[in-house]
Amino acid sequence: MPQHRVHVDFPGRLLIVGFGSIGQGVLPLILRHVGIAADRITIMTAEDAGGAEAAEFGVRFIKQPITRDNYKRVLDPFVGRGDFLLNLSVDVSSIALIKLCAEKGALYLDTCIEPWPGGYTDPTVPPSKRSNYALREEALALREQFPRGPTAVLTHGANPGLVSHLVKQALLNLAADTGVDAGAPATRQAWAALAQQLGVKVIHIAERDTQVSNVPKRLNEFVNTWSVDGFVGEGAQPAELGWGTHEKNWPRDGKRHEFGRQSAIYLLQPGAGTRVRTWTPRAGMFHGFLITHSEAISISDYLTVRDGDKVTYRPTAHYAYHPCDAAVLSVHEFAGRNWKVQDHKRIMNTEIVDGIDELGVLLAGHKKNAYWYGSQLSIHEARKLAPYNSATSLQVCVSVLAGLVWAIENPNAGVVEPDEMDYRRILEICTPYLGPVVGAYTDWHPLVERGRLFEEDLDLTDPWQFKNIRVV
Length: 472
Hints:
Rossmann fold; Dihydrodipicolinate Reductase, domain 2; 2 domains; globular
């Protein structure tokens, strides 16, 4: 058996809520890299899936749905001072669990801010209120309620999560390559000033998943390389993006929020029905879905420069996601059913035969045009590195592991976002599991090859405006 580095010892109990593909993939990583005995870990989930995997590692497995009415009673025996609640569930309110952990003195981490069932899609709730922007504002408001509470890490998967740390490293790489003295930025203000100095206008979370299966997608089936329920939920939310100060054209269906930090806007259509142009090194240029993600809002907010109350600099930031081809077909069918999810769901894993998940950040609009930095992890390498993982899940799982380690090492940080954590520590833990981590410059921009077949309404004054990036 290979010897794996133990990053931190943890004397408390660990409760994992939800045990889908990410839970099953991260458990062996936790047992490798965190000093905790299997008998101090409990899994609580609403589904039967994962029971055999838990048994293999000697971890207690409890099938118990968690609801708005029972969560305090059900979780109380498993969460106390010095324990850790790792929330990998869907349809369980992150806000409720963060409050519970703060009151109990327990650490907390999730991969996205989840509402109770219906929170993403309730038609009686205005779009602004069922946005990630609104969920983030509600979560950050807990800082006032628990100003010196135990660490609660928000949204620390691959994206949101890992990509915020990739942005920081990409900024430093870009500075080095353009002769800018970046120093050692250690504050929000310093990072924002660096991004402004470099002239970064746009940050895409640019992802192309090329993994393919030997089992074709069937009619009335949603297939994906990670949580179907998670993808469906966020895909049905309004498309959202951080809104940059360089933008000159307001989207015809764009709306501002009437509350909060005003770093982002939303569109009156679902993210799974909105496409944008982007680029990655292996795939080249492609169309991605503008799926709402917390990192689009937090990165744009974190890199905002202000002069008093006036915003003088802010980049546009958004997700541009081309999932695996089977998932694209699933989204097409999902949309054709007027956003009613298919009756059957399947997460691809053992049937994947080839492909990579190319996930990174594209920083654009600066004097070298655009720079992509990220992971090019293949299914073959993922299987060598860790059990129960695809390329997609491993990128998430190792970031969950890194966030968990950081929280244990920094137990009194209160509510924190990925952008506020030590990017060096996170990347140190993650990099061995990410496959090739590469940086690449490109001359591509959203106006390349445009207007060749049909005349388009373009803004030629700046190719990196959202008007040119969005597919209509």
